[in-house]
Amino acid sequence: MLVFDGQGVFGLGVGLAGFDLDTGAETWTTELTGCSRMSVLRGGLVQLVHSDCAGYRDTDLLDRTGRAIAGTDHAGVQSLSIDRPADDTVPVLLADGARDRRTGELVWSTPDLVTAGGGKDGTAVAVVGDTALLRDHIVHTMTGLDMRTGQRKWQVLTERGGTAAGWDGHVVVFADSQGLWAIDPGTGATAWEIPFAAVDTKAESFSGEGQLTAPSKGHYFYASAHTLLALRPL
Length: 234
Fold this sequence. Notes:
It contains 1 helix and 23 strands. The chain is an all-beta fold.
């Protein structure tokens, strides 16, 4: 069960149901078939990826009434770790394009949203403010995309992957097995970096997946299986 943007979504085995948070009344239902999956997006939207488990898939965007406002059979699916658009006028990403969050109409499209060379993977890892951060693991690039126009703000070469783990309204913090680093989404510049080895030389101190929270600008807590790390501005 998920609760977001004033509504609830409940998985029912082979289906999904939306429900009213005040009354618990069912507001919509839809089927899940094969290897289908869902994710939620700001504005009360549900991204429903239909798959037959053999590889073919298509994707629908459902509004808070369960109505499909947009759909595509493009293979590229965007899986955001952070979805924090500035407001509802910022479009929502679907395959290789951006759709109006209210009507589902296509606003713009760009090949940057799928991996290079005819790849079929979505590249978006985060939407913050009016910028999308894209990572293409084929050509090893990180790109900042203007969500209102679809134009590149910047692009850098990088071998580092990691997960977009936090956003404090100023920088996006990434995490991997080696440490934490922050990127300015407006310029692509690295604002700061903390290697875990500089905090504790014991490899097991930061083993396994960690969780990062940003309670306020410049303040972070990172918890791994064995260590709790608190960060603040210098």
